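User: Second chain of the day. Same drill as before.
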Amino acid sequence: MKQLKALRFADETIYLRSASLNIVNGTVGLNFSCDGSHYLSYDEFLSKGLDFWFGDNSSIASEVACAVQTLDTHRLDAEVDVLASLGCIQVNKLLYALEKGDVPERVAAFSVDERDYIYRELKAVMDVYEGGVCGL
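Assistant: Same format as last time:
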């Protein structure tokens, strides 16, 4: 799971859009923003490591993996749930403020990395509603 999270939150160029684990045929499906889909066996996926996806000389892999490991994701996920329960309009206002570089009072107590995590998670939730479900 840590490897999937690190790939998901790498950066805006290479980030992992979605991943699936097929328990019937033992494959991992990965869909990246930069180059589409890859399908690997479980063992092949686990053996590659992050350096394979980012290149051997890339420092971003270790930085992202470190950042993902140090965050208290359970606490942050609970906060994402609370924020999401405020509704689409409030979440969109929060996302807009964060995109402008503002720090809304609601998330001011969190570190920059934690706010980034909250932003990405809320953004992923809101992407589900792109079809106009919120009536925005």
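The chain has two domains: 2-70, 73-127.

User: Great, on to the next one.
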